[in-house]
Amino acid sequence: MTEARLRTFVALADTGSVRAAARRLYVTESAVSAAVAALTRDLGVPLVQRVGRGVRPTPAGTVYAGYARQVLGLLEEGRAAARGAADPGRGPLRLAAVTTAADQILPELLASFRARWPEVELTLEVGPRRQVWSSLAAHEADLVLAGRPPADVAATVLARRPNELVVVAAPDVAAGFALDRTPWVMREPGSGTRAAADAYLAERDAAPPRLVLGSNGAVIAGAAAGLGAALVSRDAVGAELDARRLVVVDAPGLPLNRPWHAVGGAVPTATTLLFVRHLLDAPGWTAAGGAATAGPTAESTAGAG
Asked: H-type helices in 229-269, by residue range?
């Protein structure tokens, strides 16, 4: 069960095609087939089955793919930890962030970090809440920037930053705002902001018309164009509020406090802590119980925040 075979099987499980897996890995299709066949022999159970022109994991293959991702993630994490311990300023750093955080808080942070530590091998994954926490759980990310970590993800909360959610609308829409009648423009299901909006409306038994848009920028632009109200981070609409394209609606129970969290695995790498220390130099960020400066034995909190 070599690392190459595990990577091949995960690629096949992800893509559903021998050809697509071969393209992803820059190997031949016969090499993909041979690797999966060897794993099947080692385990003694079928891992994939044909479906039309493609393949998909068997139930056993689905279970095994989850373990394979964690093994591969641990290997990458181990490499990152070793290289970071030798020289944190030249180690790898795998960041993952929810879309809102990537839009609002990461660009300036990344630019200043790269200017300060240009030799850090930085990668960034941007996706919905479930995706980034899954990456941390599978050891595929060293640090996640998102809201509160789920209770079932073992996580080390290293830093926090305040984040106020407010309802905004164009001035004429805000003037006639009614919780049950005014349309809402919202992110897609799976977004943390969408979950907060759904929970807010459900708590008040409100069921206004909803228009789903695919990004934070589209939601803000839609609200400014008069399509409806939107629940957004105050930080995300500063320019629109200053220009009076949007105004904050005086809605009950608002603003909501949904802090940003910088979250690592159980033992953050030296390069991860280098980034967190940089983060703490930025306005608004505070260490979580001193974890960011305590080194690799930082406080571990599951579902904290």
From this structure: 238-242
